[in-house]
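User: My collaborator and I are trying to settle a disagreement about how two of our proteins should look. Neither of us wants to argue from intuition anymore, so we agreed to look at predicted structures for both before our next call. Could you fold the first one, then the second, and keep them clearly separated?

Assistant: That sounds like a sensible way to settle it. I'll keep them separate. The first protein:
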Amino acid sequence: MARRNFASPRRMSHRGGSGSQRRKVWARQTGVLTLPVGTPGPTVQEDLLANFNTAMGASEPGMTVARVVGTFTATYQTGEPANAGGLAFIGLIQDESNRSLNGPDSFPYYDWFYYNCTYIQVPPAPTDTCEGAGFHRWDVDLRAKRRLDEISESLWISAQNNTNPFVNGAELVIYYQLNLLMLLP
């Protein structure tokens, strides 16, 4: 004869996600990159965590960049000819501080956190019906996690024009506003 168990079934309670219990902080960075003329152009780079590390007192090993949300806006400086354009390469990379980085155009096979190549065109002169002509805007929302194991590591933004110089010596200006979700150790 089969044995019957009259005990009440065990209740399983769901507590929600078992996400990270690490402290989360948003690091915000706004800046401007001006790509000079060249064939290919020199790499322009900035440390995205420099202000965050200054505010926190120092860089902590073991921090993780969990998410990057933001906007890039690119335009040529005023006075450039209509219908001219060129390629711009923009990348985010985890690397050591105080090191000369190679640009995303020259080294596309690096382990880029974010990599984008975009064609920026100068449209005809703006008219009353075409306000804001000459701006190219795109958003980013990255959810990959990158752990910064060393004190000297940081997240860098790197930009470079392509092997064709911008028309008439036009400098490309890239404005960026990025929010980085940091998981502290």
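The second protein, kept apart from the first:
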Amino acid sequence: MLFWICLDTIFFLLYLVGMYCLKKDKDIHLLSIFLMTFLTVITVIREGVWTDYYSYVELFYENTEYLRQEPLFLFSIDVLRSLGFSSQMLFFIYGVVINILFWKAIKYYFPVAKDRLTAVLLFESMFCAWMFTINALRQGMAMAIIFWGYQFIEKHKNKCFYFCVVMATLFHYSVLLALIIPLIYKCKFRKNWLIFFIFLSYVIGTQLDVANDLVVPILEFLADMTGIGSTYVRYALSEKWVSQEGVISSVGMGALATIVLSMVILLLLNMRDERSRFVAKMTALALCIRGLMWFSVPLMRLRYYFELFLIVGVVLIIHRVMDKDRRILASVWILLYVLLHLGSIYVAEKTQTIDFGINLKFIE
């Protein structure tokens, strides 16, 4: 736990330095690069952090002919093994590529240096961003590709976006859900409709019989019809994850805090421009998925492809209050996310491996 406290403290203090001490945009930009580079170094040398780490180590040494994971993931394993690399090189390559893609996305969404610095801190401290990518390697890569690819929707280059979806699907089938985003981008929903959809999803989702009778059959039908993702659906709906008391077990401190903060962002966004409306719709979609899929932890993870826009939403709102009289309010809000990040890690310590180990053995 001490490692995570030190990490978040360093990031937050350097964030304050960049926001209130540095005057030149170039210096603030260099600080953002330093923080992302520092985070990438931590990403690639980690060992044993979170439960999926050793699962990926085991997969790396399995015969890929008998594995059912996505093709590009298996191909990357075959290439690395043929070149004599160890499993740690898998974490190295994925960590570098994922963080580069997120950095490129951050640069696109935040041309202003201070906004970019805020986004980097949020990327590190929000549980739906960097922290999740170092656990779920395959989905983390898909998230990075699709988050970077969302810019093509705003640029009205849907073919490029669909290509990003295809590439991301080769790392994790679940990202196929993102195919609906161009349609959602075009739809014009008022804020009250978004709130109504969120409320409706939680009403439906908390009725377990409705979830089993409606959501599960649709997912199984689509998986069987397309032949894509059937293994993932079976896994997500297995007894290991599906709980009769899911609504209780899934709404922990971190989940409840994310729901509340997402609603705050949704309520504060003015929705006067395309970017704000897009962020509001993505935030609402993530909340709807959380409400409908509470009975399965893997299915709730689908929300991460859209919950990433919380980073954009927070920065948009902070940008509105960043005058001299309210800078303290903005900093307190950012500090709240950092504290929630530490609180989530503290709670996760009971069921997850959070002790930070170092592995520099990249070659067998």
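Some points you might bring to the call about the second protein. The radius of gyration is 20 Å. Strands lie at 46-47, 357-358.
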